[in-house]
Amino acid sequence: MNIAPPYSECQIRFRYYMLSQGIKPGDEYKIYDYMIWINRMVVRYKKLKNEKITAPIKQDDFTGFIEEQFLTNKYIISIIKLIKLYKIRWKAGRLSEV
Question: What is the pLDDT at residue 95?
Fold first, then answer.
């Protein structure tokens, strides 16, 4: 097990990994979980770009892709939470309070 460093000391891709997995500075994490995560991101990126798996990565573009994936997932999670809140209030007859 490793201890997660402060966000300011992390490489940007590792920071997105920590944020996407809910890892906070000081939490324990397994380095191989990061390796699995980043490898999956590489596969997604290359499929999106229609590139061979062996093709080199455009580093800045790949980092932008990871950021975009993180922000998209964060946005979707926020929407889902909002929908659940509206459903709860609708069922309780309190939709007018929103």
Answer: 57
Q: What is the dihedral of CA 12, 18, 19, 20, to 10 degrees?
A: 110
Number of domains forming the structure of the chain = 1
3-class secondary structure, 59? helix
Residue 97 has pLDDT above 70, yes or no: no
Domain range for 63 is 2-97
Alpha-carbon distance of 42 to 28, in angstroms, equals: 24
- List CB contacts of 32: < 8 A, sequence separation 6 or more: none
Long-range contacts of 70-78 (CB under 8 A, 24+ apart): 70/16, 70/19, 70/20, 73/20
The tens digit of pLDDT for each residue in 59-96 reads 999 999 999 988 887 778 778 877 877 777 667 666 55
